[in-house]
TrEMBL record:
InterPro entries the record matches: Cyclic-di-GMP_PDE-like, EAL_dom, EAL_sf
Pfam families: EAL (PF00563)
Matches recorded under SMART domains: EAL
Domain EAL residues, every copy: 30-279
Domain of life, per lineage: Bacteria
Organism: Tumebacillus amylolyticus
Name of the protein in its database record: EAL domain-containing protein
Length: 279
């Protein structure tokens, strides 16, 4: 709703009553200033970029898949930072619509990486009913011809999930249709080892806070090993994200981590890139 169309009664304390709820004038202005995200969603102005996920074979990094990340586009084609587009979507109450547009864009691009893993982010709080909200996503995934097991739907923003049962229903829906799923940022917020044990994801990502500097930090080493042991116990593949140095990578490889992601191997790029890096 644009500011000029708000039916609001100005108050002496700088607030207004909008749709039965009190909002400050600053909140109203921020809501109006974020209206550009409505056009991004309506026009599907979303660009998918690709960040490699690697394993180690014979001491060398080999690409196993890519995380498909979304960037909104200005009308002139320049990229909008992801935090900005999701902040605007929350202000406009368009999070579900933006999440869907990003998810669909990623899925439609899956065939460009051929037989490799396709990690696609989704926000669980934006999905109120998997049967209703995910039908089109799954249909598009099948239409690509990519093996469903190569799709890995990655839970982001776990800390905002009010109902773990609801999240379980979403993940079981994915798995029932042959897809796999990952839990992101494990070790931070509500993405705990207990969540890993309960949700039994196919992949678990160690949060970068525990990755960066792990080669020298005993506390981070303990956290990394705790997740590794939990992942193995529930049959999940452990993935360390945010790797920027060879030293941290080497420590994680020797500890037993299987998959790796971070600027050391490549930043998000407009086209999937190969990786040539020796341990």
């Amino acid at each position: 709703m644009d500011a000029e169309n708000l039916q609001a009664a100005p108050m002496s304390n700088g607030e207004a009553e909008v749709s039965g709820a009190w909002q400050s004038l600053d909140e109203i202005r921020r809501h109006h200033d974020a209206h550009w995200i409505d056009d991004v969603i309506a026009e599907s102005r979303i660009k998918t970029v690709f960040q490699p996920i690697v394993s180690v074979q014979d001491g060398t990094a080999h690409v196993q898949g890519y995380e498909f990340l979304s960037r909104a586009l200005e009308t002139d084609g320049t990229l909008i930072p992801p935090y900005k587009m999701f902040e605007a979507a929350r202000l406009r109450d368009r999070l579900f619509a933006l999440d869907r547009v990003c998810r669909m864009s990623a899925v439609r691009n899956a065939a460009v990486v051929q037989e490799k893993l396709v990690f696609v982010n989704f926000i669980p709080t934006a999905i109120y009913s998997p049967e209703h909200c995910l039908q089109t996503t799954l249909a598009e995934a099948r239409a690509t011809g990519v093996d469903p097991r190569n799709f890995v739907f990655e839970v982001v923003e776990t800390d905002k999930v009010d109902s773990v049962e609801h999240l379980e229903n979403i993940l079981l829906y994915y798995r029932k249709h042959g897809f796999r799923y990952a839990l992101d940022d494990v070790g931070q917020g509500y993405s705990t080892l207990e969540m890993v044990e309960r949700l039994k994801p196919d992949f678990v990502k160690l949060d970068m806070h525990y990755v960066q500097g792990v080669a020298q930090d005993v506390a981070k080493q303990k956290a990394a090993l705790d997740l590794l042991h939990t992942a193995r116990a529930v049959g999940s593949r452990p993935l360390a994200e945010g790797i920027e140095t060879v030293e941290d990578w080497r420590w994680l490889v020797e500890a037993g981590y299987e998959l790796f992601q971070g600027y050391l191997f490549g930043r998000p790029e407009h086209e999937p890139q190969e990786v040539s890096l020796a341990l």
